[in-house]
Write a structure and sequence with these properties.
288 residues; alpha/beta; TIM Barrel; two-stranded antiparallel sheet; 10 helices; globular
């Protein structure tokens, strides 16, 4: 397989075949993110992408999960998406899931008919990372879409039959910590995802956030504040039934369960961590 630059995928796609159908991120302005800053965005040549699928099949890969990269591949035009999904179904008889990262604007850039066609062709899960439900925070981190756009995107994805995974970012708004946590819980409620995960902000060199930190205008909150944000999100979010995880390497407290079923247990664990009764992930083992 031909890969260009660094590759990123959600933790739950660790066992997926990564198909790099786009290079970089079409937005690439989020202040905290350096994942694609070394790449100029483009959609890969369709022939090359289809050849990668053929090569993977020729190598005898028994692919059950396909993750289409890079950053917001949903923005790829339909005349690329449909041949890719068709070839993937042909190449991998046991394929049960295809997924990708998606910005709200790229979901909204597809018609309802197009989203339904993508789902019928096999694209079944979208990873959407609003990071916050607080519009002031979203503007400050240059997310590009407000909370309402994320709700509309999730609603339309669900209407097409797709599952949605929502990603929140702990610590991204130290000056609005409570507002950020409460608004994010409300956003999760309104997006009603099948999957909900939280990451912890990391100041990465070369990003606008790193420049703010260098000037003393941003500091990652202390661990107790991060845990309190997480507690608020878990305690107040009301998805109908969502798998919840904080298993990303950036987090101090790995958690798992379902919301609402396991809410009380998860909150109890967070409270125990706040009280110093359970160990946290050591700093040396955290990462991106």
């Amino acid at each position: 397989m031909r890969y260009e630059g660094k590759l990123y995928r959600p933790p739950s796609e660790a066992d997926a075949y990564i198909l790099q159908a786009t290079i970089g991120c079409s937005w690439n302005h989020c202040t905290y993110c350096d994942m694609y800053r070394d790449k100029d965005y483009r959609v890969r040549d369709l022939g090359e992408t289809l050849e990668d699928l053929r090569h993977a099949r020729a190598q005898g890969a028994d692919v059950e999960k396909l993750f289409v990269a890079d950053g917001d591949a949903l923005g790829m035009p339909m005349d690329h998406w449909l041949p890719i999904l068709e070839r993937a179904r042909e190449a991998f008889p046991n394929l049960r899931r295809a997924s990708c990262y998606a910005m709200a604007r790229n979901v909204l850039g597809k018609t309802d008919a197009e989203l339904t066609q993508l789902r019928a062709s096999g694209l079944s899960l979208l990873y959407i990372g609003p990071e916050s439900g607080d519009d002031a925070t979203l503007k400050r981190i240059a997310k590009g879409d407000d909370a309402a756009a994320h709700v509309e995107a999730a609603t339309r994805a669900h209407a097409a039959g797709m599952a949605v995974s929502v990603i929140a970012l702990l610590g991204i708004a130290p000056e609005r910590s409570e507002e950020h946590a409460r608004a994010t819980a409300e956003l999760v409620t309104n997006m009603d995802p099948e999957f909900f995960s939280a990451l912890t902000v990391t100041v990465v060199p070369g990003t606008p956030l790193a420049q703010l930190a260098k000037k003393g205008k941003f500091t990652v909150p202390a661990i107790p504040e991060l845990l309190r944000e997480l507690r608020t999100m878990v305690d107040l979010a009301r998805p109908c039934d969502a798998v919840f995880r904080t298993n990303h390497a950036s987090n101090y407290l790995p958690l798992g369960g379902r919301l609402p079923r396991d809410r009380a247990r998860i909150v109890e664990v967070i409270d125990a961590a706040l009280a110093g009764k359970i160990p946290l992930r050591p700093e040396r083992t955290r990462g991106l």
